[in-house]
Amino acid sequence: MCRYVHLKSIVPVESFSPIHLLTDSRMAFHTTDISTKKFLVTGGAGFIGSHIAEYLLKNGAAKVRVLDDLSNGFQKNVDLLSAYPNFEFIKGDIRDLETCMNACKDIDHVSHQAALGSVPRSIKEPVYFNEVNVNGFVNMLKAAVDNNIRTFVYASSSSVYGDEESLPKMESKTGNCLSPYAVTKKANELYAQVFADMYGLKVMGFRYFNVFGPRQDPDGAYAAVIPLFVKGIINNTPVYINGDGAQTRDFTFVENAVQINVKGMLTENEEAFNKAYNVAIGESFTINYLYNSCKEYLSSETEAVYREPRAGDIRDSLADISLARKNLDYEPTRKFEEGLKETIQFFEQLYKDKQLSINK
Question: Which position among 84, 161, 181, 208 bears the catalytic label?
Answer without folding.
Answer: 181
